[in-house]
Structures are given as structure tokens and as C-alpha cells.
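Field log, afternoon session.

UNIT: design team B
ACTIVITY: writing a sequence onto a fixed backbone
BACKBONE:
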């Protein structure tokens, strides 16, 4: 029995790595492994999203088959199965801290989801408070069986509308420099580069956050 469990665990780990490699995140995978040794070098882009006019992305299939809603605590068990790296308990902590999780749901299946913070941006050990008209968008994920349908861009677009109705007109997000799929995804939605930053961590003790370049 012990041997069977170990094989399943290894396969699960390899599947997670393969998904990242498949979507162009090889360097990020390597960086994550090195970070566990206590040394982390993480260049990143700070984006502004949702500014200006934008046409709603078209999805593959019938958009009426989907519903957009904020997820509840009972939904956290389901999205914890999505290989995002977070557990159900961690997702529940996010909700308790005031984070919001917006999702597109197909029937009883959660197809894609994203997190929204109205209070602050938490990136690595960096904390940036959000003002009353700002919001921070993070951790967008599409379930494997729903990928290739262009539903993530559609949900992102709808999040801009929802947040504007809430009085949040200035929207920020962060993407690691080597995460080219995430960067391309945001560029298709006319996201604007704000700055190129560099996060450094040494021996899990010393940290630095540097601005390498500003764009606007």
C-alpha cells in the first residue's frame, strides 16, 4: 500500500510540473525549486488592467452555458483540487481575510476562477495597500478540462465590469517575468506595463524589492 501511495504522489507531482512546462513556464518551475533552498531571484511585471475601452473576448461555445458568480466557502474544496498549489484551508483563510473569488461556472462545475483583493496586494513578502478605488487581481486559474475555450479572458473582462460597478476603477496585477503565458494573456486585454521589479530573498532571512524600470 505504501508503494502505491508513493507512485500516485510522484505522478501527481510530475503532472503539475508538466502542466507548467506545457504552458511555457519552464524557468518559473526551475526558479521555484531553487527558492526552496532559500535563494530566490524573481523579476516581475506590475500591470494596470481594465483601463480604456475593450471588446468582450469571444469564447468557444455558448456563453449562456456559463454563470459568473463570487464563490462561497463551500466551493473552496472544489477549487483546491485544481493543482493551484493552495489547499482548501488556505483558500478559506483568504475568504476570511476579505479576499473575493470570482468564477465562471458551467452547470455544477467551476471552469475558471480568479482572486480579487480590495484591501492590499500580497506578493512574496511585499505588501501594498489598495486605495478605495483600487483592486488587486491575482491567482487566475482555468481547470484543465475547460482550457482552450478562451473563458479566462472573458472572466477577466467581466471582472473589470463588476469592479467598476463597485467603484474600483484602477486595477493592478503582477506577473513573473518568465511567465510568458500570463503576460500574453494580459496584453490581449490591453493591460499596461507599470514597472519591472526584482524581488530577492537570501537564506529565507534577507529580502529586497527593487524597481528596475518604470513604464508610466
Amino acid at each position: 500500500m505504501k508503494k502505491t501511495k508513493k507512485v500516485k504522489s510522484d505522478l501527481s507531482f510530475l503532472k503539475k510540473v508538466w502542466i507548467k512546462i506545457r504552458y511555457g513556464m519552464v524557468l518559473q518551475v526551475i526558479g521555484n525549486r531553487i527558492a526552496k533552498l532559500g535563494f530566490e531571484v524573481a523579476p516581475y511585471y506590475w500591470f494596470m488592467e481594465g483601463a480604456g475601452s475593450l471588446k468582450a473576448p469571444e469564447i468557444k461555445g455558448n456563453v449562456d452555458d456559463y454563470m459568473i458568480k463570487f464563490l462561497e466557502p463551500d466551493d473552496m474544496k472544489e477549487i483546491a483540487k485544481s493543482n493551484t498549489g493552495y489547499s482548501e484551508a488556505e483558500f478559506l483563510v483568504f475568504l476570511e481575510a476579505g479576499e473575493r473569488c470570482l468564477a465562471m461556472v458551467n452547470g455544477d462545475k467551476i471552469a475558471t476562477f480568479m482572486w480579487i483583493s480590495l484591501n492590499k496586494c500580497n506578493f512574496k513578502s511585499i505588501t501594498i495597500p489598495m486605495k478605495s478605488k483600487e483592486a488587486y487581481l491575482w491567482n487566475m486559474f482555468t481547470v484543465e478540462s475547460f482550457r482552450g475555450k478562451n473563458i479566462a479572458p472573458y472572466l477577466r473582462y467581466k471582472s473589470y465590469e463588476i469592479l467598476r460597478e463597485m467603484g474600483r476603477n484602477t486595477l493592478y496585477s503582477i506577473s513573473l517575468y518568465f511567465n510568458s503565458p500570463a503576460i500574453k494573456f494580459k496584453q490581449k486585454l490591453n493591460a499596461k506595463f507599470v514597472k519591472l521589479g526584482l524581488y530577492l530573498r537570501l537564506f529565507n532571512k534577507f529580502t529586497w524589492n527593487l524597481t528596475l524600470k518604470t513604464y508610466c
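LOG NOTE: Strands lie at 39-49, 66-70, 100-106, 109-117, 120-123, 126-129, 134-142, 170-176, 192-202, 206-214.
NEXT ACTIVITY: expression trials, pending approval
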